[in-house]
Amino acid sequence: MKTVLILGATGQAGQALLQLALEHPEIARVVAPTRRPLPPHANLDNPLVDFETLPEEAAWWKADLALCALGTTLRQAKSKTGFYRVDHDYVLNAAGLAQRAGTSTFGFVSSLGADASSRLFYLKVKGETEQALSALGFASLVIVRPSLLIGGPRSSARFMEAFGLFLGKRLASLLPRHYRAVTTLQVAQALLETGLRAPAGLHVIESEQLQD
């Protein structure tokens, strides 16, 4: 029976990860550090944290695998600097603490087109985060690169994303597979099941693979 650490459990993909992990027969304990409390569950440890000042010596950093769905938007972050701090710095800080505590497997929700050399800020940040995670030395690193995500209602509106999903759903048959929208459940299932298998080295799951 395994212990899973979930980062970003209050977001769309993170909520799906949390639910799947709590129901999984191979998982005995789920640790989900968050800023605000989660609904209680017998198998859930929910330490309340500030991601600006994470507790470095907390015993719960050591898990069989850590899965990360941390992320924000430019609108929420209010600046590129704020966005980079969450989507890069928070992710890398938490990953580093988990790795140093002895967690050997890490899974990360990235993005279709992530590329550190991209001219698009969002994709550049995701690509830089992937590169930095690869350098940390996890025995197994799983990266999922989804296209637009279909999930439950968000706490804040994302007009352009909603418009893209509207088109994506209606034009799905005309779009190449890697551009078609995928569900948060598909992303969570792929990340969790692959993380539990812990393939050696870097394992990347592209968006079209989520639709199989």
Give an overview in words.
The chain is α/β, with parallel strands linked by helices and 212 residues long. It has a single domain (2-147, 184-211), classed as 3-Layer(aba) Sandwich (Rossmann fold). Helix content is 37%, strand content 18%. The protein is built from six helices and nine strands, in the order E-H-E-E-E-H-H-E-H-E-E-H-E-H-E. A seven-stranded parallel beta sheet has the order 3-2-1-4-5-6-9, with helices on both faces. A two-stranded parallel ribbon has the order 7-8. 35% of the residues are buried.
What fold name stands as the CATH topology? Rossmann fold
Q: Gyration radius, to the nearest Å?
A: 16 Å
Distance between the termini: 28 Å
Low-confidence stretches: 153-165
Q: Mind summarizing the main beta sheet?
A: 7 strands, parallel
Mean pLDDT: 89
Strand content: 15-25%
The tally of strands reads 9
Question: Order of strands side by side in the largest beta sheet?
Answer: 3-2-1-4-5-6-9
Write out key terms for the chains shown:
212 residues; alpha/beta; 37% helix
Summarize, please:
By secondary structure, this protein is an alpha/beta fold. It has helices at 12-23, 74-77, 80-101, 121-134, 159-170, 184-197, and strands spanning 2-7, 27-31, 44-45, 65-68, 105-109, 140-145, 149-150, 182-183, 201-206.
